Amino acid sequence: MSPSKSIALLIWSLYSGAGRDELQHFPELKPKAEKEDVLVELLDFNKDAVVGKLLIKTNKSLLTIEKISFDQDWLAMATKGDRVLLYSLASGEQRGHFFGYDAKVNAADDALAISNSTGQLQIYNLSTGQLRREYKFPSAVAYQSFSQDGHRLFAFTRDQTAYVLDLTIAH
Hints:
Blueprint lengths: L6 E7 L3 H7 L14 E7 L4 E8 L8 E7 L2 E6 L3 E6 L5 E6 L2 E5 L4 E5 L4 E6 L5 E6 L4 E6 L5 E6 L4 E5 L5
């Protein structure tokens, strides 16, 4: 699902002067921040406001961000080493830790889709972190995307097969 065109996610490395300057706008985050960390801001241009902020601890740069997916209050970050970290932008807290190399967030259906290198695609509940369902493909998933309403998930595998999964069907 694509975020609204009026929403932007900004990622600032605190190694950079610009990142350190931006951190000055958030005095509540400053005491916790280290120069290796990352500041994330969710901007809503319609409201002309920062609607979410997050300080990501990189553990002295051991954590490397590979991909980010976000929707409303939720941000899923895939990192080097096939880990996915789930954050709430409203609270700034980490809400889950999963294994996989790609994640997509769909707040409308309270869902998180995570793919891994063995061809598994797992759907989790965003709020609880509980596994809802799991799909197994003959090849790893190269791309995945939720429909606008969150009821379907498009998955395209590395062997160039496309799947449309109906997430409303009970297992």
